[in-house]
Design goal:
heterodimer; A: 218 residues; alpha/beta; Rossmann fold; globular; B: 113 residues; alpha+beta; 3-stranded mixed sheet; 2 helices; binds guanosine-5'-diphosphate; binds magnesium ion; binds zinc ion
Chain lengths: 218, 113
């Protein structure tokens, strides 16, 4: 006998993600899922953003990492609440891990939550966490062909940050070709280009965050 | 990739459905998997054989229907399967393609006794 199922394999995760999002909404927290390859500059961008916004915005961070606490330590040195998730080899964060992390944060004291995903351009795209916005970071040394090699990451995101633009003169990264590919995949996506090291180009990114925070609170 | 976790989900969903249908044995699970998912069939079957040992899904065969990637040009409406690194439209040459197939990731049905 054949029994119809028609159920998405990741349904359990999606439902948990929706629960997380309701919890975040109830506390009026804007949550961003930051996804990128290892070394693209996720932690650097979060740190720079903290430095620029922490006087007016209460920020917290969930750090996903395969094993170490190095990134969490860098964040907590800034006086920002941080919860570390060690995935123990796992290649992505899932909604269940984020739920546990949320239970360890004082949600009434947060406006903006960064979730730094595990360094990986494939798996994180398939797992919603309860975030409001998904942000892919691509650093210019990785090359401008990545949207085509990892299309899911770019079709499923609301923003793309091109990082390490300070290195542009040394590389053959074709910015126009990259943007064309990204917009081709996802015409509504926001694109930022900046250097998390020098801070150049950071303002449009900060303005976007502030506008999103405002609209969540309106 | 995360085949182990995915396989556990497949098994859980199938066992639930079989219980609802009051089945005594699951003989086959029909999966529909888009090309973009990057899941490796052989490792899913491998994990499945291991995870299902003590359940009514032991010996069940997993069947994978692979859905190739398909995109539609937003400019001229032409549908095509893109080449690996070139998603520009073969008809109008624009690079403005919406993915219309290839993201599928679901259990279509199970076969039970
Ligand atoms: N030149 C340059 N280096 C950067 C930039 N952003 C990050 N880095 C460096 O890249 C390395 C990895 O950064 P990190 O933030 O830890 O990356 P993550 O693994 O994505 O969290 C560090 O050595 C950073 O100093 C940038 O904009 N320009
Ligand atoms: Mg990091
Ligand atoms: Zn066309």
């Amino acid at each position: 006998m054949k029994v119809k199922v028609l159920q998405n394999i990741l349904d359990a995760n999606t439902q948990m993600a929706q629960k997380n999002q309701r919890l975040l909404d109830n506390h009026r927290i804007l949550a961003l899922n930051i996804m990128a390859s290892p070394g693209a500059g996720k932690t650097s961008l979060i740190l720079k953003t903290i430095a620029r916004l922490k006087d007016k915005t209460r920020i917290a961070v969930i750090e996903g990492d395969i094993a170490s606490t190095i990134d969490a330590d860098r964040i907590s040195d800034q006086g920002v609440a941080v919860v570390q998730i060690n995935t123990g080899g796992g290649c992505h964060l899932d909604a269940n891990m984020v739920e546990n992390a949320l239970n360890n944060l004082k949600l009434n004291e947060i406006d903006l939550l960064f979730i730094e995903n595990v360094g990986n351009l494939v798996c994180p795209a398939a797992f919603r966490l309860g975030e409001h916005k998904r942000v892919v970071l691509l650093s210019v040394p990785e090359g401008d062909d990545k949207p085509i090699k990892y299309p899911m990451m770019f079709t499923e995101s609301e923003a793309v940050v091109i990082n390490k633009t300070d290195l542009m003169p040394l590389l053959d990264f074709d910015l126009d070709a990259f943007k064309r590919k990204v917009i081709g995949l996802n015409p509504d996506v926001e694109i930022f280009q900046l250097s998390a090291k020098t801070g150049q180009g950071l303002d449009p990114w900060l303005s976007w965050l502030e506008a999103e925070l405002k609209s969540l609170r309106a | 990739m995360h085949e182990l976790g995915v396989t556990q989900e497949v098994l859980d969903i199938a066992l639930n459905k079989a219980r609802e249908a009051q089945a005594s044995r699951i003989t086959k699970i029909n999966l529909v998997i888009g090309e973009m998912s990057g899941i490796v069939d052989d490792s899913v079957q491998f994990y499945f054989d291991f995870l299902s040992q003590d359940s009514i899904a032991r010996d069940a065969r997993l069947s994978f229907r692979r859905v190739p990637m398909q995109v539609r040009c937003r400019r001229c409406g032409f549908s095509f399967s893109p080449e690996k690194l070139d998603w520009s439209c073969p008809k109008c040459k624009e690079w403005d393609a919406e993915v219309t197939a290839g993201k599928e990731f679901y259990i279509d049905s199970i076969e039970v006794d």
